[in-house]
Amino acid sequence: MTDRQHVLLIEDEPNIIEAIRFLLARDGWHVSTHGEGRGAVEAVRQRAPDVVILDVMLPDRSGYDILSDLKSDPALARLPVLMLTARGQSKEREMALRMGADLFMTKPFSNAEMLEAVRGLVRPRSETP
Amino acid sequence: MSAPGDPPFLERRSYRRRRLSDAARALPIFGTVLFMLPVLWAAGPGGTTARSGLYLFGCWFVLIVIAAALSRPLTRIAEAARDDKDDAR
Amino acid sequence: MPAFDVILIACILYATFLFAVAFAAERLAARGRARWLRGGAVYTLSLSIYCTAWTFYGAVGYAARSGLEFVTIYLGPTLVLIGWWGLLRKLVRVGRAQRITSVADLISSRFGKSNLLGGLVTLLAVFATTPYIALQLQSVTLSFAVFAAEDGMAPELDALGFWVAAGLAVFAVLFGTRRLDANERHDGIVAAIATEAIVKLVAFIAVGVFVVFIVAGGPTQTFAAIDASPIAAWELRPGRWAGLTFLAAAAFICLPRMFQVLVVENSDERHLAIASWAFPLYLFAMSAFTVPIAAVGLARLPADSNPDLYVLSLPLAENQDGLALLAFLGGFSSATSMVIVAAIALATMISNHVVMPIWLRSGPSGAFVSGDVRNVALSARRISIVGILGLGYLYFRLSGGGEALASIGLISFAGIAQVLPAMIGGLFWRGATRVGAAAGLTLGLAIWVWTLFLPSFAGGLPEIVMTEGPFGAGWLRPEALFGIAGIDPILHTLCWSLLLNTGALVLLSLVTFPSPIERLQGAAMVNVFRTGPGARGWQPTHVEAEDLLVMAQRILGPAEAQAVFRAEAMRQGKLGYLPNPSQEFLERLERELAGSVGGATAHAMLGQMTGGGAVSVEELMRVADETAQIMEYSARLETQSRELARTAAQLREANEKLTRLSVQKDAFLGQISHELRTPMTSIRSFSEILRDGGMGDADRARFAGVIHDEALRLTRLLDDLLDLSVLESGQVSLRMAEEQLGAILDRAIQACDGGGPVRIERRGALDTVLVTDGDRLAQVFINLVMNCRKYALVAEPHLRITARRDGEMVEIDFVDNGPGIPTGEQEMMFEKFARGGDSRAAGGAGLGLAICREIMTRLGGTISYLPGQGGAAFRLRVPRALGHLRAAE
């Protein structure tokens, strides 16, 4: 294991994956990806990331379903989750936050915002003893 | 479907239809009797082939003419019956 | 004296002419231009296969031996026809309502679609018809021999018989088994038979006129000649006179070939009214000259010449070669038309009642096994035709021709008349049951075989059995059953067999209890004029309409099956090809299938698919209670409720669709947003990265490439959206031009790199010239090909494009071998953003099919999903000339 912080990105658009990976890697993060809804929860369990970035519109399974699975697992419930969506309707934001997402961002995002958000999510945990 | 004003006409028509179809049913019975009549005389001296033949072919032809006369009205009855049924459906 | 070769050549020319007539008729019928082919005149003429070579040649011989008795053979059918209103009309109506394919099918359908009865009647028919076919072969070969003998030649008669049989088999196979028609009608055959009917009538009358007016010198002299001849005194035998009249009447409706032309080939009940007088007139004309020819022949020809061939030998003796040739062709016609129709009718019976039931039972899962049922049925028929003619030829060889065959006509009649009690009982008495019918038929068949069929050929039964009875049981002597001797053999058989046959039918029907289907069928047939077609035989089940379509396609053929399903869906107020598998529809479908494979088989196949349980208690109650039945057909209520139900179904469907549409509309904005924002995200992110700088050249180039690709994707999406909105608003302008369908397809396929990994096969009417907007049509084709590339994810993807002209329209089917589209998604797939399953695999915005639908609407056509084809299948219908249609509107 490296001592770098680990981000798991669950997203299906290859170009967006590439952009986020480049962005976070340049900022010193270890980035791993999972490209579909199936097996996403298992991937989280196995790889034990520090932050999860989760797309809402995955081809085979809704991001909300994955989120609710994560939140209902006691071992993962406190893992910070950043939801991404391209639909950008306000009811989506409410739904995501109600379901326990820590942060919600609409595509397209600015790179600075993304970095800020990920850093913000992980800091509180590293500060706790 | 007819207007409510003309039941007598309809009744008469349907009465005619029924009698016509009676005639159609009676024709083969009538024909059978005619064709079986030679049994009565053929054993006697008058029963020559030539004359009996004339009788048989004569009856035969009359039957054909009657059947031809009945054929067109009967077709109309059959069609009317089918139309009634189609209307009702 | 025409040389023997001349006769042979005339014969071959005549056969060729018949081929041409049959072929032309089929062509006309295929183009729908043969209404007169289906008219009353042709129908009447086709009935003339009743007059076989036996009557053409044999009637004169018969008259020379027994005077006027020959006329009974014509009087029976005359009485049946002039009485059409009572019996034949019912028979034809039942035949049409139940899609009856043969006399065996009628009996089988009436008694609960029983395979046992179908098989029994088939067996009986084969028994009774084989000798009759042999008789025809004999007539033809004998008439050849007359010419050959005068020519001083002795041709190999057996070989001649073989070639005649082979030629007839070819003709029957070619025109009788071309397709498995829903109604079993054969235009080509019927046209050829009608032609032959005219030829034999003209030939016989020509000989008659020649004999009466030229040989004898006029009617009066002919009259005198008859009075002077050995047959002047008529020794009428009352029993035979009545019995033979009855026998001929019975045979006329029971003979398989007569049933074929009378009932199966009937396309309109009105034709029966015409035939009711026209066919008796034909018979009248055919027999008017029989006695004069016999009398003159007896007086003028040498005593040793065969009276059965007077029709030929009289003109020959008077050196009238042309007339003799015409007479010969008349006899040839009589023989060939009978053999062809008899072979086809028997083959239908064998395939539907023997082969299909066995095939259905032997298959691992019956109706579900794959493969084309039509091929099985058609091959069975072809083989049966050849087999039947082979049997006829064998019988001809074995019996050695000669006198043994002369009486076979009446023997054959007596055999097939055993069907009569079951037929009449079934049509007029609801109480007749299957057990009764089977017992009656079996008993009748047994008595006929024992007392008439076996004794008919030399050595059929040992002498000791004939005189002493089997094992010394004198009361079983074939010609004196129960010890009553001295009756004419034909009458003896006729009386005992029909008496015991009918007795068994009535008695066993009274003591047995019919099965539900029997009772339903009984009610449907006996009350055919009151209740309209068909008994209610099916309960609504959970069978999938798509499974039914798959099965129906294999029996009826794809085009016909689809037409049936589409019509039914329309009747139910639904779009597309899949109606609800309602009780009504199952009945209708069963009748359609029965028209191709027979009632029993169709019922069994549907039974397998729907899980058997066919009749409910309520249905039975309904049938049993006759008063309820009358009340139930208070017809107008039914109409109204049916209309209401249809409207309700339409409303329900519209409502469901609206609800789904509103959900979709809601999702539409979200979709648009998603489709626009996704590429935008990559573009924004990478452009910020590029702006920040600090990466290598390779990275920079790659990132710029991504931005470029995503920008293109955005543009494409916007183009599609704009395209769709223009199409939807109707503001599109079409660029009409004349172009071949094939050329448009070529362009489209080229635009898709020839389909990529997909193997594309094109066939059908690609040469059709379309007047339409070729670019727009090509756009639809491209979409469908690309769809196949995206979704047909199998090892060897394969797309079959079939074009077919259909009146003013062209139908183009795109069928691939991929997984197809689930029934639930078929209806929504033409809506915007309705992408099948995996959105990334699609790579597009899900607008393709929506655009296709809009384009097809603009082009005056339709696009629909065609279920039940194995893979995904789309059907395009487009007018051949758009402008033309517009102008016509």
UniProtKB/TrEMBL annotation, chain A:
Domain Response regulatory, first and last residues per copy: 6-122
Modified residues (4-aspartylphosphate): 55
Annotated keywords: Phosphoprotein
One record GO biological process: phosphorelay signal transduction system
Gene3D superfamilies: 3.40.50.2300
Annotated Pfam families: Response_reg
UniProt name for this protein: Putative transcriptional regulatory protein TcrX
TrEMBL record, chain B:
Species for this entry: Palleronia marisminoris
TM ranges: 23-41, 53-70
Keywords assigned by UniProt, alphabetized: Membrane, Transmembrane, Transmembrane helix
Protein's recorded name: Uncharacterized protein
Superkingdom assignment: Bacteria
From TrEMBL, chain C:
PANTHER family: HISTIDINE KINASE 1, TWO-COMPONENT HISTIDINE KINASE
Protein name per its UniProtKB record: histidine kinase
Signal sequence annotation: none
Record keywords, A-Z: Coiled coil, Kinase, Membrane, Phosphoprotein, Transferase, Transmembrane, Transmembrane helix, Two-component regulatory system
Catalysed reactions, as listed in the record: ATP + protein L-histidine = ADP + protein N-phospho-L-histidine
Chief place of localization: membrane
Membrane topology type: Multi-pass membrane protein
Recorded family membership: Belongs to the sodium:solute symporter (SSF) (TC 2.A.21) family.
Residue runs in coiled coils: 634-664
Source organism (scientific name): Palleronia marisminoris
InterPro entries: HATPase_C_sf, HATPase_dom, His_kinase_dom, HisK_dim/P_dom, HisK_dim/P_sf, Na/Glc_symporter_sf, Na/solute_symporter, Sensor_HK_Regulatory
Transmembrane feature ranges: 6-29, 41-64, 70-88, 116-135, 160-177, 189-216, 241-259, 279-303, 323-355, 376-396, 408-429, 436-458
Ranges of residues in domain Histidine kinase: 671-882
Keyword Transferase in record: yes
Cellular-component GO terms for this entry: membrane
PROSITE patterns: HIS_KIN, NA_SOLUT_SYMP_3
EC number annotated for this UniProt entry: 2.7.13.3
Location in the cell: Membrane
Single Gene Ontology MF annotation: phosphorelay sensor kinase activity
